[in-house]
Amino acid sequence: MRSVVLAGGTGGAKLAAGFQSLLPPGDLTVIANTADDDEFWGLLVCPDVDATIYRLAGVFDDAVGYGQKGDTFLTLEALGRLGEPIWFRIGDRDLATHVLRADMLNSGCRLTETALELCRRFGLPSHVLPMTDDKVRTRFVTDRGTLSFQEYFVRERLAPALHSIDIAGGDSAESTPEVTAALVDADLVVIGPSNPLISIEPILKVVGRQLHRERTVAVTPIVGGAALKGPTVEMLRALEYDASPQEVARRYTAVAGTFVLDTRDAGLAGEIEAMGYRVIVCDTVMADGGAALAKEISAAFR
């Protein structure tokens, strides 16, 4: 079953790894968010693309939540001694990824080509595609001004009060031929359990019109009133949304026909079915790395 997963760098990427463990080589494509990309020291850093590649390659550092396992920070420490701000931590192995990407971009390659080449060099049986080759950036409007994704998340640690989120460039960005082909060929498209506001919404701005409800399933990132990873609940509440699976389901009604709800929230199934969904109730906590959840979802579409 040819499958596409829409993902940020955490829950969605973990579920993608689960699908990769089940599918034949070449049958999985991940479309990754690029709206939190940023430049540091002249290098384009693509956190969600890279985190997805690292997780699929089995080298992602779960202990810190970014980068590669066993990484060192000698270059970053040297930059600090030279007086550079080093609040954005790039490890030495991670740096090699960014240097290679920069060299390819400077040689005229598209962002998509750099991602596919990284997949090849990390030995992946799957494809990881940026959602677009165009520049799209998330901007957070706060009580301390407008901040980039990395400024808000990493430097400020989400401390400023959040007023709104702007996906700059999202309305004009176009999907790539590779993304379009993957969606056309897909038997199943999965909206991963990533933050709907900042990980999935940018992707949907670009590819939402290409999704077919009957073969698209969305997985809740909220279980028992809490997000398993990241500030999803806090962000929804800050913007005066209901921090619940129902709110997540409401956001995806135009693009998904099936919704995956955790067993802890089984009592909400009727309300979500009333929105026009087929509901799958199962354990969505991916303690095994995502394989069991991927198997549940796949079985529902056979």
Topology record:
Blueprint: E1 3-7, H1 11-22, E2 28-32, E3 38-40, E4 43-45, H2 47-57, H3 74-81, H4 92-106, H5 111-121, E5 127-130, E6 137-142, E7 145-148, H6 149-155, E8 162-168, H7 177-185, E9 188-191, H8 196-207, E10 216-219, E11 222-223, E12 226-227, H9 232-238, H10 245-251, E13 258-262, H11 269-273, E14 278-282, H12 291-300
Care to describe what's here?
With 302 residues, the chain is α/β, with parallel strands linked by helices. The protein has a single domain, classed as Rossmann fold (3-Layer(aba) Sandwich). The chain has a seven-stranded parallel β-sheet with strand order 5-2-1-9-10-13-14, sandwiched between helices. Strand 13, helix 11 and strand 14 form a beta-alpha-beta unit. Helix 1 runs parallel beside helix 2 and helix 1 packs across helix 12. 43% of the residues are buried. The mean pLDDT is 97.
CATH homology group? CofD-like domains
First-residue to last-residue Cα separation: 8 Å
Shape descriptor reads globular
Query: What number of domains?
Result: 1
Give, in order, the helices and strands: EHEEEHHHHEEEHEHEHEEEHHEHEH
> What's the CATH architecture name?
3-Layer(aba) Sandwich
- CATH class call: Alpha Beta
- The CATH topology comes to Rossmann fold
The total of helices stands at 12
